[in-house]
Design goal:
about 130 residues; elongated; about 75% helix; mainly alpha
Length: about 130
């Protein structure tokens, strides 16, 4: 079970990191307005958290063989049978929720920071 969790953390974590890179680039494109940058990053982070929650909700209905985690597991590490599929789905659900909670916390921090900067009227000196 630990090998499944390790591979799931690797696969989902890599996907979240690539998403974070894209969100960072969008946030960076708003460098002229720090409040807008934080709000844009936070909003996209909330979208990512919602997607991760959706994946967690639907993990039990997904076939293990259709996941990247399954492909990365060696044959002797793959669970077999109905019980194995349920175990695999519960690990995937747990991993998706792990990342969703953390992405949500960062996104809310960004949104609140953006709202605070906007309320204080802080603008970039670049304009």
């Amino acid at each position: 079970m630990e090998k499944i969790r390790e591979m799931a953390m690797f696969c989902v974590g890599r996907a979240v990191m690539f998403s974070a890179l894209a969100i960072s680039l969008v946030t960076l494109s708003f460098a002229f307005d720090p409040a807008a940058a934080l709000k844009a990053g936070g909003t996209l982070g909330l979208v990512l958290a919602a997607i991760l929650l959706w994946f967690a909700q639907t993990a039990r209905g997904r076939k293990p063989k259709d996941t990247e985690t399954w492909l990365l597991l060696k044959n002797d590490s793959r669970p077999s049978g109905e019980h194995g599929a349920k175990l695999f789905a519960s690990v995937m659900e747990e991993v998706y929720l792990f990342f969703a909670v953390r992405v949500f916390a960062v996104a809310i921090t960004f949104v609140v920071g953006g709202l605070l900067l906007a309320a204080l009227g802080i603008r970039s000196s670049l304009i």
